[in-house]
Specification:
alpha+beta, six-stranded mixed beta sheet, 6 strands
């Protein structure tokens, strides 16, 4: 992974600026604020910040917020081409998303794994 992106990501995960959420890159929380998966924080760090609330035909809004990239919607993973630009493998991204979503690891715990397991490019 590109060293400068990795360092910014680690700093962002540990900053307490981002609330943690599960099962979506970004979602609206019950209190009206927004929460992020660890990969959603990475999207923000990389400047991918075109988020769109999805509305149903009956007017209700989904709590999951889609990342819009080149006209496509992403909810759980980053676009492959974005991972390529930062030299991150898809299996690494999936591992971290699973730690966030299913192992329910904190951002601090995930940051520790990134430092130890994700190599610099």
């Amino acid at each position: 992974m590109r060293r400068e992106i990795k360092q910014k990501w680690l700093q962002a995960l540990r900053s307490k600026k981002y609330k943690q959420a599960r099962l979506s890159l970004k979602r609206k929380l019950d209190d009206g604020s927004y929460g992020y998966c660890c990969l959603g924080v990475l999207a923000e760090v990389c400047g991918l910040n075109d988020w769109k609330t999805i509305k149903y035909q009956d007017g209700r809004e989904d709590d999951k917020i889609a990342l819009i990239h080149e006209g496509r919607k992403f909810y759980g993973n980053l676009p492959d081409e974005c991972l390529e630009q930062i030299s991150m493998r898809l299996d690494e991204a999936r591992m971290l998303a699973n730690m966030n979503d299913f192992s329910e690891m904190s951002f601090e715990e995930i940051a520790n794994v990134i430092e130890q397991e994700i190599s610099n490019d």
